[in-house]
């Protein structure tokens, strides 16, 4: 059974052909994040706090050096080796050593992908058979739900504990494990809640995965973006589980290079070898210029990353202040990481309709919470990767819209 969610596009009148379309695709819904973006593009003057794209430019040194590479490297317009450029894989191995203290074989244990999106899709398609159950947190990233459904697996939602800051409820996790559990997909820090799994949570999940023989697929595009001097612990650091782990990473957020579409996977060599079949069928190889850009980001771009993190921290403080000024409309848990905040809509509005009304009437786009799983009902996700001016203008509009709405209700 697919997770029954609405489609903002269909609610807005977009037609979907049914005849001749595969059952697999018919039951999918485009991620509400992209839907809201698409709808927002059609309305002049909209401010989008829907999609998670950083406002920053790709580091100057990366763009400058890439320009030289484009002019002078005779290989730049040709297919890269399908597992990735050796120079990039070796730079990735050095990063994993620096960041997590782990030693990986760059020849055999790294696969360069078209973003973390292809990485997770390839991981799921590699291990999930039809009707297999895949555990996923709710709220969780909507594309993970779609990727499980595309593999004809069944997403099984583990509710996070909202009152405790959207943290893991281990008893709820254990409760969802069954004989059909094939994998768990985790996203740490979590999109959309910004909450973190602790080292203890991850060690407990690793013990359960070992005992019950399921895969751990981890998606960590925000591992660099944790606030208040908290440390990020990656499940990759637990050596005992590495044989059952597929870890997926992205260049999009950390280096402000989402348009380049590069990510990568760490997995055991014999797992990477199986995944190569899926990667070949889906993508063949990540774009060669983008792989050079990613190599340059790893060698030249680290100074910018600390600046990005400081800026995001200011934007987080701002959005929290602005939400505090709307106490009868929203409540929230302060995110520990990422640039998302997942707010509860206090009045009894349905979240899809609320998001569409806010888009059309206040001209501010956010993502309806139900898209992130059943626990997301009556919530919205705001992305605060926009500049402070844009965040302020979005909330000026929401405040005015909400006050008009209350006035017209009281008349
Ligand atoms: C949890 C998560 N995974 C994957 C992605 C996509 O990453 P990439 O651009 O590397 O494909 C995103 C983008 O928002 C994300 O939030």
What does this structure look like?
The chain has two domains: 8-57 and 304-410, Aspartate Aminotransferase, domain 1, CATH 3.90.1150.10; 60-301, Type I PLP-dependent aspartate aminotransferase-like (Major domain) (Aspartate Aminotransferase, domain 2, 3-Layer(aba) Sandwich). The mean pLDDT is 93. The protein is α/β, with parallel strands linked by helices and 411 residues long. The strands form three sheets. It has a seven-stranded mixed beta sheet, sandwiched between helices. Helices cover 42% and strands 14% of the residues. Helix 4 (60-72) crosses helix 11 and helix 6 runs parallel beside helix 7 (142-150). The N and C termini lie far apart (45 Å). The longest helix has 23 residues, at 302-324. Bound molecules: pyridoxal-5'-phosphate. Residues 52, 115-117, 141, 187, 191, 219, 221, 250, 252, 258, 263 line the site of pyridoxal-5'-phosphate.
């Amino acid at each position: 059974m697919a997770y029954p969610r609405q489609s903002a596009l269909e609610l807005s009148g977009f037609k979907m052909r049914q005849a001749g379309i595969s059952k697999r695709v018919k039951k999918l819904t485009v991620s509400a994040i992209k839907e809201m973006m698409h709808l927002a593009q059609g309305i002049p003057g909209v401010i989008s706090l829907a999609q998670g794209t950083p406002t920053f430019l790709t580091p100057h040194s990366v763009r400058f050096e890439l320009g030289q590479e484009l002019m002078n490297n005779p290989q730049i317009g040709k297919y890269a080796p399908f597992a990735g450029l050796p120079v990039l894989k070796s730079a990735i191995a050095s990063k994993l050593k620096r960041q997590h203290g782990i030693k990986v074989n760059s020849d055999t244990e790294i696969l360069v992908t078209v973003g973390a999106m292809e990485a997770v899709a390839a991981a799921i398609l590699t291990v999930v058979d039809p009707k297999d159950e895949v555990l996923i947190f709710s709220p969780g990233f909507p594309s993970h739900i779609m990727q499980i459904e595309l593999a004809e697996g069944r997403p099984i939602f583990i509710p996070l504990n909202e009152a405790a800051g959207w943290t893991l409820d281990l008893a709820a996790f254990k409760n969802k494990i069954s004989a059909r559990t094939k994998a768990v997909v985790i996203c740490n820090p979590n999109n959309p809640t910004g909450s973190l799994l602790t080292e203890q949570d991850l060690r407990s999940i690793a013990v359960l995965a070992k005992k019950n023989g399921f895969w751990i697929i981890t998606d960590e595009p925000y591992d660099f973006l944790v606030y208040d001097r908290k440390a990020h612990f990656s499940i990759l650091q637990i050596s005992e589980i590495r044989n059952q782990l597929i870890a997926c990473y992205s260049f999009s957020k950390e280096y402000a290079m989402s348009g380049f579409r590069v990510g990568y996977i760490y997995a055991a060599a014999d797992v990477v070898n199986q995944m190569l079949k899926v990667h070949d069928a889906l993508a063949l190889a990540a774009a060669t210029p983008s792989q050079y850009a990613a190599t340059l980001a790893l060698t030249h771009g680290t100074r910018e990353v600390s600046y990005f993190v400081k800026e995001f921290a200011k934007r987080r403080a701002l959005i929290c202040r602005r939400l505090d000024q709307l106490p009868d409309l929203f409540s929230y848990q302060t995110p520990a990481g990422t640039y998302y905040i997942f707010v509860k809509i206090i009045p009894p509005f349905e979240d899809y309709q609320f998001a569409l009304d806010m888009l059309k009437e206040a001209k501010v786009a956010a993502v309806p919470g139900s898209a992130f799983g059943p626990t997301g009902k009556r919530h919205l996700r705001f992305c605060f990767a926009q500049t402070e001016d844009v965040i302020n203008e979005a909330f000026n509009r929401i405040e005015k819209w909400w006050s008009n709405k209350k006035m017209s209700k009281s008349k």
